[in-house]
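In line with agreed milestones, the collection of sequences with tokenised folds has grown. A representative record is reproduced below.
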Amino acid sequence: MQNLRLTIAASITLIFFLSCQNKPKEKTEVDVVSTNKDSLNIEESEVIQEEEPFLLNEENAIDFFFNYAKEVTETKVRLTTSMGAITIELYDNVPYHKGNFIYLAKQGYFDNTMFHRVVKNFIIQGGNADNKATSQKRKEIGRYLLPPDTRKGHKHHRGTISMPSSERDNPHKLASPYEFFIVVTKPGSYHLDGSYTPFGRVVEGMDVVDKINKVEVDSGDWPMQNVYILKAEAF
């Protein structure tokens, strides 16, 4: 009986041992996931930094127009108005005012502005308009004034283009860069010399200037019927 028990125990031990040998091993390795951003195909969003638009101001306008006048090849500006065309030749030795006028023309500033002030037998004044578009264009170009440049020998002869002061109370006669006036008086309006800066002259279309000067105006010298500058072209 004792031998039978020993035999049975030995058989059980052998069967257990063999079953352990045939049992598949459990997987103990852990798959490694790459953290390389290229393998994950992660697209980084590009941060696009928009350049701030260039604005003219009191600090940069003088240097800008001095250099600009040396670089531009255009010497004339043609104003196509609702009453005809006027061609203006600009003086080389007044670089701030010349550069300013060409720059504004090429920026499209004068397009759809008006001759908003007409003083009989004296001047026609343009470059402004009572609309939001003109105000917006000024905002996008910048806020600045130009100093007078009156010692270059130019006088306010008939047909001369010059710049008005920015305000009535303006002891230094700083010029409003967005506006201009053309002298109609024969032979000229020489009392303006030394106070305002002539920067060019009409070479074609003086008959159009005279025609504009004859339009009917209200008590504030504003034409009763708008006279538009349809387009300004530098060439």
